[in-house]
Records
---
Amino acid sequence: MDASVFRGDTIAEVVRAGLVESVHSGHLVELNESGQIIKSLGSIHVPIYLRSSVKSLQASAMVRAGLKLKPEQLAVVCASHSGSEEHFKVIRSILADHKLDESAFRNATDTPLGEKERRTWGDKAPTQLAQNCSGKHAGMLATCVVNGWDTNTYTDPNHPLQQLIISEFETLAREKVQYLTADGCGAPLFALSLAGLAQAIHTITISTDPVHQEVVNACRANPLMIAGEGRLTTRLMRAVPGLFMKEGAEGVEVLSMPDGRTLVIKCADGSWRPMGPIITATFKRWGVEAPDENVYVYGGGKVVGQVVAQ
């Protein structure tokens, strides 16, 4: 892929005292209630790795395959969790309910994602449970148990579970998945265009399919499980009624309102800095009351500028 195409357009500027000091480039697409594109920046048909932004789609495939979980359990399956004891307790309960333990995990090891949780963890060795995708992997394992599928090979792209996930992606996005590699956690990672990702999030939000409703409602009801204390996703989902939101590594963000309005962002440099300002500006245009998530620029302890969404 031509890197100049991937860099996209300017999606936010860092302005200090009236002068643009830095620029964030990338891609953005906004859909209205009907799923029509009303704003786009960059190349929204260029494929991107979706990372953890699509865990709700993966979870939908699991539920469709017969996985039955409590709402907080289903929410942590959709999570990039911070690694708190609350998260660990729920993940362990998924394993125990399906007569599994942590030895069944096939994900990578890591320390907690959350800053506070990582400090609490200290110098202990990384574990598979602490890795932020362990909820998803617990759900995948549980789905295998329900269906009598092999639990040792559930991360293989040709495994029945992963084939169902591909089908769910393609149905919701209305396009074929592209590229195949391993995500940081070890699960298969696919690519879709930003437009396809936006279509998928819009569709799952307004869907009357009981599977989609169960997944999205579980996330909405359990914002702590989806991310963690202090994180943007949890803060906004708590503050904005009906908001569905999920971040992915390397600067991917998706969010939608119950009426179907959808925003999907990919920051070309993988940065998170412009996300709050872009979302805040979008909510303002939508007439949605939400906390101020703008990022301000300081000089001598005083505000002298801010990150400005395009």
---
Amino acid sequence: MNISLTKSKYNLNNQYKAIVIGGSAGSFQVISKILQNLPEDFQVPIIMCLHRLKDVRNGFVEALNIKSAKLIEEPEDKEQIRKGKIYLAPANYHLGVELGNTFTISTEGMFNNSRPAIDITFMTAAYVFRNKLIGILLSGANKDGALGMKRIAEKGGLTIIQEPSECLIDTMPTSALKETAIDYTLTTDEILDFLNQLHYHYV
């Protein structure tokens, strides 16, 4: 599916500093396709918070790296967020963003029955990056991420959800729609084209 994106259709006038992506059940294939087709020189850092088995530390990031055109890393506490990098929240740790563009890793209690919790990643990133943030919420079976998308919108960031009819389980994107006005509802292919347009807008 080749969609022609225009500046009038998508708000690409901001110099975006980060992208946060959240997903749960049904999102692995979607995120794999996105990572596989991302330009190798894509510069906007991507911070992913995906629900995963808390007791399985190995295998998940390796499986994503097999699909990805760029290396995916699990960040350390206080690590600096850098251009061109893709980060994944470690298993059984909340991943947050602090002023100064650094990560914070914590083992605080579960949020939305999840650790890592998408809401924590999204809300802290919204506080730091404000209108320079893009939030993308994919397929999932609970409401995690809905409040985070609301916070991103409140801070002036750009919000995107996966088209609910395309999702394996649509609870996450539909919950976000109930919480706040979402800028764009896109299929996987449209998300890919959006990211490619974003890339070429800044090169």
---
Amino acid sequence: MKLFLTSLFFTILTVQSQDMKNDSLPYASIPEAPEAYTPGAVVARMIDGLGFRYYWATAGLTTSDLDYAPGNEGRSLRQTLDHIYGLSAVIRNAAMKLPNDRTTQPEKLAPLAQRRKTLENLKEASVLFAASTDLGEHNIIFESKNGVVSYPFWNGINGPIEDALWHAGQVVVMRRSAGNPINPKVNVFLGKLND
């Protein structure tokens, strides 16, 4: 099993390295569906759907879009993207069976670097979950100065995965309100751009 996970990890690194060389990002389209409906494959597909929506929700954002706020004391678009980035790390850490360290501040990235890292976090999580045979091993673990708290993966579904999807929708609405709607050819049902 360790050999398999090590091989899978190096495969992910190779794919990410190739993406960096080609300057391409994951999720311009949803990958082919798996043949079998396993629990891990279903979770991976949920993450792929999130990645596709996030990719197109954030494609072509401008600085003025990032500063847009709905005016009701809600988060700005930039703050919403920061939150999604944090959620993508929680999702990835659950896939990797790692804790989320709340004793340090999250890494601050420039908008394009943050977009890339969010998409890479989701892709890495998708690959790992697709290979998982027991979702019960993927607890959501938080480490803080008060100790360690662990939640079952059920909370990962209704928590960070669905929360990130919710916020990706908010990004779409905010950018439309800011005057920069998403590409009208995005087809979330088929997971690609319409011709």
